[in-house]
Amino acid sequence: MKEFKGRAKLIGYLVTGLVCLLILFPFVWMFINSIKTQIDIYTGTLQFTPTLNNYDRVLFSKQSNFILNTRNSAFVAIGSTFLVMVVGTLAAYTLCRFKWANWVVAGFLGWILIFHMIPAITLVGPWYLTFRRVGLYNNLWGVLLAHITLNLPLTIWLMMSFLQDVPKELEEAALIDGCRHVEAFIRVTLPLAVPGLIATGVLVFIFSWNEFSVALNLTASQTATVPVGIARFAQQYEIRHGEMAAASVLSTIPAIILMFIGQRFIVRGLTFGALKG
Q: What is the DSSP letter of 275?
């Protein structure tokens, strides 16, 4: 790889710094607003006395359902991620290893890709009518099933790319040694695909945690998720900017923790198979 020097290196640093500032600015602005009073936010003053009142109202006020919203989001995100990873990994393994006709594999992958390209908002209406009929409206299980449907195509595509890079010869050797197909899959293939599993799992969890449109239309106050709860700080006669900013800051913590814990696996997983020695 060519190493840049002199002016080119300086320009590279400047461009990288500018991009980082553009990315971090919304988060910094959101955090600053979360420690301002409502008056300071309205006036836009740069000199203010920091306060944690917004966080106190978000976490402990009777007017806020943030703790309940967080519990709802955790149930939906963790549950849908677990089920999506199980079903998606098994489906990807089946498509990779079993002897399907090429047109069957291509047709299935093309169909789920087209489904994944459909905006989620177009599915809300049919889901709303269906869930009301079967008793899943205003029910976290309904949101969980919807998130599974939305994230399963992505999981299958990603896991196929990871599993295809695991040599078949390792499984064949395990079968020769007396393992069954299930044992070879669990003991040989899955450990080698751990970076891909973690990368896909983190992405699916974040997508589910941040999903808004489906959760907004399929839940009410007691079953609302975090994004819906944050949106409800914008009320009819007032927008509680400080509390909205504080709730937004708190809602990013799980994603940040996951990224810090799994960043090594995510980078390795997303580049898995890109270089072969």
A: S
Given phi > 0 = left and psi -120 to 50 = alpha, else beta, which region is 44? left
Q: Which is nearest to 142 in space by CA: 85, 225, 204, 66?
A: 225
Neighbours of 58 (CB within 10 A): 28
b/e burial code for range 83-100 (CB count within 10 A of at least 16 → b): bbbeebbebbbebbbeee
pLDDT in tens, 125-182: 999 999 999 988 999 999 999 999 999 999 999 898 888 888 888 888 888 888 888 8
Q: Three-state DSSP class for 239?
A: strand
List CB contacts of 160: < 8 A, sequence separation 6 or more: 92, 95, 96, 109
Chain segment 48-72, per-residue pLDDT in tens: 889 999 999 999 888 889 999 999 9
* Strand residues in 71-113 grouped as ranges (E): none
The answer to whether 248 touches 230, Cβ cutoff 8 Å, is yes
Predicted model pTM: 0.87
**Sign of the CA dihedral running 166, 182, 208, 255:** negative
* DSSP class per residue in 25-53: HHHHHHHHHHTS-HHHHHHT-S------H
Plot region of 269 (φ>0 → left; ψ -120 to 50 → alpha; else → beta):
alpha
Average pLDDT, the chain: 86
Beta bridge partners of 234: 239
Tell me the β-bridge partners of 239: 234
Question: Residue 211 burial (CB < 10 Å; 0-12/13-18/19+)?
Answer: buried
